[in-house]
Each structure stands twice: as structure tokens, then as C-alpha cells.
Amino acid sequence: MAQSDDKLQAISAQLKKGVAPQRETVRSFLLWFHAERRGFRVVRRIRFKLKKYGIATSPDFEYTYIDGYVGFIQAPPEDDPTAAHSGTATADPTYRLARLDSANKPPVSVKPDATLQQAVTLMLTNDFSQLPVMTTPREVKGMVSWKTIGSRLALRRPCTTVRDCMEPAQIVSIDESLFSAIGTVAAHDYVLVQAQDKSICGIITASDFNDQFRRLAEPFLMVGEIENGIRRILYGKFTSKELEDAKGPGEDGRTIEGVADLTIGECIRLIEPEKRWNKLGLEVDRVEFISRLNKIREVRNDVMHFDPDGLEPTDMELLREFAKFLKGLRDVGAV
């Protein structure tokens, strides 16, 4: 029996006895299933196992910060309206700030009466562009930044203490949508993140967003490059009937006018027969090529579900290697 089955079976037995199981971080929970990220395939596999043992996580493991804790409860019936809040039905799919690492790390702060030199030293030594000015974990007095300091000094305004150089702080809830916060960050270069208990639990800067979207954008760009590379290989090699025959089951009403209309799965279906494969004129192994392309198709599903956790490192490496392989074929004139 797999580790995940052992764990879930034990949890199910505890719940039936009325015993509260030990909570786990999402990260450690994923390791039960030999996973590090919550991609589409991983989530689907975990939900199948949870359903098998009549268990749900609270909060839902798919939408919680990866180092946050989840508890285990008995899954309510699927027709129970509370199921949607326990992960057994369709949970809220909104990507919230709570998913970001930087939203879950309390920021370094200074007090209003701290000297300007103290604030500047903290910003320089930590490579910060701004600091929250706080008296307690819940009490925010403002924000000091290079911009606020520079504008005061340029206008020859007194700027001895942090209080002299701060401006109102931008604060958003940790439950705020990731995308709705973009405008605030674009306008102010940061947002302070407020937890449900009203404490400041993180700070998200423009740099954090840049890193996050770079991690998300690279797989999209790689998948697009691979799809275009595959269609370039197929272009002009097949008849209209062959392209139509490659359509997936239940797609009879869809018109295929060219290879650009084919999905990756349909491209695979098109070239699987050896007779059609030979039309490509590629001196590479057909079985290995199609096997790799099938793996790309599976990874593409994770990419298109836009998970802030990003891809597994092995999946990202697969995309890079296959894109490089296709480029190599183009460089030597094979396609």
C-alpha cells in the first residue's frame, strides 16, 4: 500500500473515532503523494484518494499557502452545500495573495521615532526599497521609502526621523485576489498584506510580482514554442481528410482547416500510424518522439491551469529540452 493510502486510512480511522488528526502543512501533505507542486494532475490524483477514504481538508489544500496548515475532516455528502467549502466539491478557484510566499513573511519594520539613519541602514543592508512604519504587529503608521525620503530632501523639508519621511501605507487583505492587487502594486510599488487577525503578515513588491509572473510566463511561452514547432513539422504534409481523421472523439462538429486547428493530442493521433509518420521525413525514433510529445501534452494541462506554485522542476526541464530539440531540427534544416 502506498504511503498516501497508509496515512489517509489512519486519518479516516481517527475521524470515525471522533479523534482530531494531526494537522499538516500543504507541503508535507503533498510529499505523501511524492509531489512538490499542486499541478492539475497532482490535484486530481489527491482528490481521488481523499474521496476514496471519505476525507476532506480544511482549508482546501489546493488554494492554501503551500507552507500553511490544513486539517482533516470527514467529507460531507456531495449534495451538501458545505461541500464546496471543504474541498469535496468545486472550491473557490480564485488565486489569492495567500498563495504567495512573500505574503506570509512578516516584514521588517521601523517605529515612527526611529532615526532616518536607522531606516536607511535597514533598507541598504536588506536591499529594500521601502519599510513599513509600525508600532505593533497590527498598528501601521505609514510607509517610508527611497521615494518619500528623496522627495522630502529635494524640497528641503525636515527629515530627521522616520515620522518626517513617511506616507500613508497601502494595505490589502490576504484574501484579496492576486490579480486585483496588481493595480495597487503598479501604482505604489508594494502592498502590505493583512492577515485575518488584522496583523501585517507580509509585503508584496513589484519585484515579487515580476518573479512570480516570470515563473508562470516561462512555461506558457515554452508550450507555445513547442506547439508552433510541432505544427511547423506537420505543415503541408497531410491531406484535409487525414487532418479531419485526427480529431478527438466527440469533435465531429468541429472544422479542421489546417494543422493550426489541431490540439497536441490530435497532432499525436495524426502521426502515430507509421505510414503517416514516414511523411514527415524525420530521421528520429517515432516511438520516443511520440512518447515525449505525450508527456508534453500532460504538462501542458498543468500549465494551462495557471497554478502559482509553478511546475515541477522535472516538468520545466522537459519543456526546455523538447523546445531545444525542435530548434535543433530547424537549425539543421530537418523541418
Brief write-up:
The chain is 43% helix and 13% strand. The protein is of the alpha+beta class.
- Major sheet summary line: 3 strands, antiparallel
Q: How many angstroms does the end-to-end distance come to? A: 47 Å
Strand content: 5-15%
Q: State the order of secondary-structure elements, H for helix, E for strand.
A: HEHHEEHEEHEEHEEHHHHHH
Please indicate the count of domains: 3
Secondary structure class reads alpha+beta
**Rg, please?**
26 Å
Shape category? flat
- Which strand order does the major sheet show? 1-3-2
- Count of β-strands: 9
The helix content, as a percent range, equals 40-55%
Individual helix count: 12
Mean pLDDT: 88
Low-confidence stretches: 84-90
Explain the overall architecture.
With 335 residues, this protein is of the alpha+beta class. It folds into three domains: 90 residues, no CATH class; 98 residues, CBS-domain, CATH 3.10.580.10; 123 residues, no CATH class. It is 43% helix and 13% strand. It is built from twelve helices and nine strands. The strands form three sheets. A three-stranded antiparallel beta sheet has the order 1-3-2. Strands 4-5-6 form a three-stranded antiparallel beta sheet. Helix 7 runs antiparallel to helix 11. About 2% of the residues have low confidence.
